[in-house]
Every structure is written in C-alpha cells, then in structure tokens.
Amino acid sequence: MGRYVVRRLLVSIPTLIVISFVIYAILALAPIDPLSQFGADPRIPPEARENIRRALGLDQPWPIRYVKWMTAMFTGNFGVSFMSHSPVSELIKQRLPNTLAVVGVAELVGIAIGIPIGMISAIKRYSIFDHVGTTFAFMGFSVPTFFTGLLLIILFGIKLRWFPFIYDSTLQIRQSIMPITVLGLFNVATIARYVRAEMLEHLPLDYVRTARGKGLRERFVVLRHVLRNSLIPVVTLVALGIPAVFAGAIVTEQVFRVPGIGDLLVNSIGTGDIPVVATVVFIFAVLVVLFNLVADLLYAVLDPRIRYT
Predict the structure, then answer these.
(1) What does the alpha-carbon distance between residue 150 and residue 147 come to, in Å, rounded to a whole number?
(2) Rounded Cα distance, 56 and 59, in Å
(3) How many CA within 13 A on the CB side of residue 301?
(4) Percent of all residues in the chain with a pLDDT value above 70, rounded to a whole number
(5) What is the C-alpha end-to-end distance of the chain, expressed in Å?
(6) Which residues contact 19 (CB under 8 A, 6 or more apart)?
(7) Mean pLDDT calculated for residue range 289-309
(8) Who contacts 124 (Cβ-Cβ below 8 Å, separation ≥6)?
(9) 95-271, what's its fold?
(10) Is 163 left (phi over 0), alpha (psi -120 to 50) or beta?
C-alpha cells in the first residue's frame, strides 16, 4: 500500500506541472490586461503605467513569468496579487474559512442524509417513501444550484425574512444556512440516487441470499454486506464530488454574496489578476488529483479483495 501511494504521488507531480502550465498559458494569452483600469485614467501618464507593468513583471515573456511563478510556488510563495498587492496565500487564508464552512458542511449533510434515504428507498422499493425520495432526488440534481438559491432568497430571505441574503460577518451561522441548504440538497439527491441504484443491484445476488440463509439478521445483512459493497462506487462519487462542490460553490457564493474562494476567483478573473486566478485553479486541480488517490485507497478499505502493490 505504501509503495502504491508513493508511486501515485510521484506520477501526480508531472501531471500537476502540465496542468499548471496550461492554466498559466491560457491566462497569460487571454485578452485581459491587468492594467486596463489605469489605461482609462488620464491622470496616470504612460511612463507611470510602464513602471507599474515593469514592477509587476508584465514586461517579461509569459514563459519566464510561469517559470518564476512555479519555482516560487514550490517554496510556498504563491506570488502577489496585482490588484490588492497582498500575498495570494493571505487572500486565500482569509477566504478559505467561509468556503469550508459552506462546502464542508454541505458535503457532510449530503452524506449523512443521502445514504440513509438511498438505502431505505432500495429496501422499500416502489413504496411511498421510495416514490417521494426518487422524485425529490430527480428534482435535486436536475435544478441548477443558482436557481435553487434564488428561490430560497425570494422565499426565506425576502418574503418570510427568516435568513439574511446579504452577507454579514456578524451573522455567519444564519448567513450560511441557505447556501449550505442549496449545496446540501444537490449532494443529498445525487448520493441517494447512487446508493439506491447500487443496493438494488446487490440485494438479489447470491451472497445476500447466503447471508440470509445462515440466519443473520436482516439489519446485519443490509448494513454489513449490501451497503458496504454498494458504497464502493459511491466513494468515487463523493471523493471526486468534493472538488466539484468547490466549483459549484463559485456560483452559490455569487448568488448569496459569500466572500469565499469562489467569489475571489470570479473577481480576479474580471480584473485579470493572474497570480490569484492561477493559484486558485491550480488548487482545484490538486484537489482532483488528491481525492482520486483517496478514492482508490478507500476501495481497499471497503473491499478486502482489492490489494495495491
């Protein structure tokens, strides 16, 4: 197992380097000038704009800027924001708790509620609970998160005035309820459908009938055998869904005006803040590679037949 993890980590290094190069190349070649806001200001002479461009390193070819950015990133230095002139790492540290408070709780809600709903729907197939859960699941992952967010704002923020829909740092718990609900509903619906489908495939199999024939309790058969084997593909869904939830939080944070990583990314794209955009997108890529590895390791935990060498 240890050799497998080391080998996967070594393979991921060139993968991430290629991803970082593509990210930086796209941003550098994009028709966005970080100094465009100064170009429209007649009070700033051309000499001052050139000095600013030289101070930011924009006078150098982009491949050289990429090498410098990548070299500094290996030392933990993600560069300096073009707009705020603050270290990128500090900007991320300021915004990350807000994003984790929404994304992390929403993922836990999805797992804690989605797995039981899917399991009960499979056991009580075609029952009223199954029909209600299936309808809810289809609605949950079919409706876009931004539309669900707008509905919650209109209903609970404007009509009933139960929750604030404009971010207020003094009301962070109440402020986070609606964005957590939006992402949580999507996660619950997706996980419930996968769990139900997988359990319906395993319930008629021979090993389940054998376990029942040995006189094992139905609860033990379902939880110890059926659910455990059914969770193997669900692990992939959850592990790879965490980076996707971060991406979905970009839209949700814009809807609810939560100052998280997603809001930072959108604002930085609009202003052409290349160091911030490149770092945030690269972090998303690292999350995808990392949780791919986590999913593979969890396979071995759930299925003893899987061995990594």
Answers:
(1) 5
(2) 8
(3) 8
(4) 87
(5) 6
(6) 282, 285
(7) 73
(8) 130
(9) MetI-like fold (1.10.3720)
(10) beta
Which DSSP symbol is given to 165?
A: S
Distance CA 86, CA 84 (A): 5
Rg of the chain on CA atoms, in Å: 24
Q: Residue 133 in 3-state DSSP?
A: helix
Residue 190 contacts residue 241 (beta carbons within 8 Å): yes
Instruction: Count the neighbouring beta carbons within 10 Å of the beta carbon of residue 236.
Output: 17
What type of residue sits at position 12?
S
Q: Which residues contact 117 (CB under 8 A, 6 or more apart)?
A: 133, 137, 188, 192, 195, 196
Structure tokens at 304: 């003893």
Q: Which residues contact 174 (CB under 8 A, 6 or more apart)?
A: 163, 164
Supply 259's token pair.
């100052």
Locate 287 and state its tokens. 């999350």
3-state helix, strand, coil in the chain (%, to 5): 80, 0, 20
Alpha-carbon span 161 to 191, nearest angstrom? 31
Q: Residue 274, class by beta-carbon neighbours within 10 Å (0-12 exposed, 13-18 middle, 19+ buried)?
A: buried
In 3D space, the residue among 249, 256, 244 whose CA is nearest the CA of residue 284 turns out to be: 244
C-alpha 79/C-alpha 69 separation (Å) is: 7
Q: Does the structure show a pLDDT above 60 at 40? A: no
Domain spans of the chain, in order of start: 2-74, 95-271
Residue 248 tokens, joined: 């979905």
pTM over 0.70: yes
Kindly state the DSSP code that residue 309 receives in the 8-state scheme.
Answer: -
Question: What is the mean pLDDT of the segment spanning 31-35?
Answer: 70
